# Entry
Amino acid sequence: MPKRLTPRLTELQVEIEGYARDYGLEPFSQIFEVVTYEEMNMVAAYGGFPKRYPHWRFGMEYERLSKSYAYGLSKIYELVINNDPCYAYLLDTNSDVDSKTVMAHVYGHNDFFKNNFSFAHTNRKMLDAMGNHSTRVRRLIDKHGIEAVETFIDRCYSLENLIDPHSPFIRRVAAESDETEASPRDPIHKLKVEREYMSGYINPEAFIAEQRERAKVEREQARRFPPEPRRDVLHFLLAHAPLEPWELDLLEIIREEAYYFAPQGQTKILNEGWATYWHSKIMTQRAVRDDEIIDYANAHAGVLATSGRQLNPYKLGLELLRDIEHRWDTGRFGKEFDECRDMAERRNWNRQLGLGREKLFEVRKHYNDVTFIDAFLTPEFCIDQKLFTFEWKEKGDRWEIVTRAFREVKQKLLGMLTNFGQPIIEVLDGNHENRGELLLVHRHEGVDLKQDHAHDTLENLAALWRRPVHLHTLVDEKGMLLSFDGREHAEKALEF
Amino acid sequence: MSSSIKQDHARFREIVRGRIKQNLRKYISKGELIGRQGKDLISIPLPQIDVPRFRFGQKQQGGVGSGEGEPGDTMGQGEPQPGSGEAGEGEGQHVLEMDVSLDELASILGEDLELPRIEPKGKKSIESVKLRYSGIHHVGPNALRHFRRSFKQALKRSIAAGTYDAKNPIIIPIRDDLRFRSWKEIRQPESNAVIILMMDVSGSMGDDQKELVRIETFWIDTWLRSQYEGIETRYIIHDAVAREVDRDTFFHTRESGGTMISSAYKLCKEIIEAEYDPESWNIYPFHFSDGDNWSAEDSRLCLSLLKESLVPWSNMFCYGQVDSPYGSGQFIKDLKEAFPQEEKVIWSEIPDRDGIYRSIKDFLGKGK
# Structure
């Protein structure tokens, strides 16, 4: 069982929280629990929560984490939940200096959760909600059996990424209706009548009837369903798929959790950068003792290490934040600086504005990964950090460095961060071919879908929709309609 | 706290087990698992244990990295480079290979082939002692000095003492800084079983035939190991003469020339006499050939060696005959004739890879 803090750790928490608040961080109230590494792996497998509904994939994640720990490949030092109060876990084997570093890091995340706009609409009582979900799912298992429930969750989980991450908050099904509202205007077109007694002649009964009939046909044709493409496919399924009540219950739970986790995926670089920035600041300037500096440096270097040439979000986030701080401290922004072409002058530019800290707090509040990279990635930074793009080359059968050009690097990075690096899929028609079939469209942005996965996902979709399902996409730059009718897959080339 | 994750974990292992069992026949006949064997674990590629999603093909997508290198330089062969943009929260989507212990694999094999468990004979059980390096000590022999830990200790000391100079970062460890690996003893009961693998490597046994033997013996070995705590394996190859070799040589030798099976059986007999007292050892001789022997005379010698010593001494004597375009396949007929009722003599024909599954059951289905 997780333990509350020892008196020593409580002392450290008071110390670290004091520093954090001195620097201007505004965290939720923070609760630390002490866990063994097994417990830490478990909580990590559950996405940070002490309790989740039963499902094999948590067991799979637990297996992966435990193995990785056993082989010494990774060790989770810290876990934080976006919740009020904020919960975080400390390893019982941590030394004082580890604990202080982790605490400082946690206060960074906590402050970010509380203040970054992306989290504003997340459920801050998620710890309770997760417990509640767990109870609901267990009850459903008792009633319908583990096989049925697990199979259905597997299907939902396969569709879990089909939400609208830009939707500011989660829409409830009951709160809105998909019916196209009846047009308030009279749909019957009558000719203008100047004198009332003429109306029977100008608009005879047969003419009116004809108008009425035509209006009805037009209305039928015009009724698009949904009226506009729907990004939140899960919501559409909740509202319109012929599901049993218990299935709706499960789908709702999966969707709610997906929305809760979505902002974490959208702010990974910024959030980790922010927490790393603060643990480094708090430790090096305030909290670390002389005899602890080596252990601290060792741990910090571990956080910033890159494996091979892969990007490390902690490092990228931290470096970019430090770059921003430096630029706003020295005034390296704005028209005058941008237009300066003298490289020596640019290099030594210093207006001594000291706006860095203020700017950082602004970034922490108003940005996510996409806007963070879009607004602050500079050519100089790209060179300093030695960024490049890579691609798979069939010829030679290997990953190759393609370019270090700023524009390409930025474009690729933004592409990977948009929609969490997931394809954008929308519901186009819930009554395709007037047969109640479901038509989705993939908004293709240069990268094809993984075909085998697309097929399997269509099968899961069809299982929920219970009618044939179709997906518009591009394969090798050609329009393609992938279909699954419940038994067979079909592909049809399309003209766009 | 952790009972719920234990449940999820057990559920996951159950699913994995089911997948492996489903594919076991394929794994067995392809032999693809053999190359994936570690010390106690084997990594099994499992298609589709990851949840299908609408997602991009990684290869077309590419990514961003950092570090040295010119455009056109390689990033590293074949290893996928997950980008930083992935929503990594507990997705576990890269699990495509599962490590399964050989014991577990054997138990899946046992279930699938409905193999009975073996009752080992003999009473003596020897304890063996193994060393495992698992900790750090302040004293120890230089050969076990842990460089990084010693260096770190020295660095800490010199910073704490204020003698560290960042401009001239020389660290000289003193005796107190030194750290050494330490070990603990692990005692393991060792039961006494030996597998003696014999194979004909004469000209008529081609690479295909030896591959069949290699695959089949892997599974037999895995099963027997799961039945005994510790087990020894000896390898004998023969053409006209027999010699004992190591495992690697066993699978990779090809000789030309004639075949005298008796030479192998004689050597097998000598090894048993010298080292494995049949009273206390469980003995499993396996012989694989294409059934071609030099002469009827030699075959008769083989049969008498079997009757007089090898069969009485062994838990079972197994003969596997692989099809070869050159072999007459006579030897299996001789065996059948000589031991029509003998339960301890087991023969099996292995025509091709698909025959391996059946053949394993022939050999191990009796639970001897």
Q: What stands out?
A: The two ends of chain A are 59 Å apart (CA to CA). Residues 8 and 96 of chain A are 9 Å apart (CA to CA).
